[in-house]
Amino acid sequence: MHTRTTTAVVAAVLLLATLTACGSETTDGEPGGPATLSEEQLAEAREATGLPDTTPEQEAAFVAALDSIDKDIAHGEAEKAVSRGRSQCQTIHNWPDDEEKQVDQARQRFTSPKHPEGRAQTTAARINAAALAHLCPDF
Hints:
Blueprint: H1 2-22, H2 39-49, H3 56-69, H4 71-74, H5 78-94, H6 99-109, H7 121-134
Helix pairs in contact: 3-5, 3-7, 5-6, 5-7, 6-7
């Protein structure tokens, strides 16, 4: 529920920013074009939703950490693994005091062809720790 509320708030803020900018004028009095958010605004929106702003180095370290646990976790799909890791950070952000929920979400989130039902709790706990260490250390 908390995730949906936070996501809805961020979506409303982004929509409001877009609508406000669409009605703006350029310096010569002409109507403005479509609004674009600054990097700072995007970072604030990501922070509010718990989605970290990651660097390629952080992402590579995360995938390497997953591979050190079990190469089947990323199973050669680094971008997909990073996307799932960022979603895991959102879970960590939204339930900071509920490690059991965090691990359960990692267990379900990191499926693969060899593990379509999800991961064991111990593996999921290591995935959760890797996400926290490499993608969202500030959480």
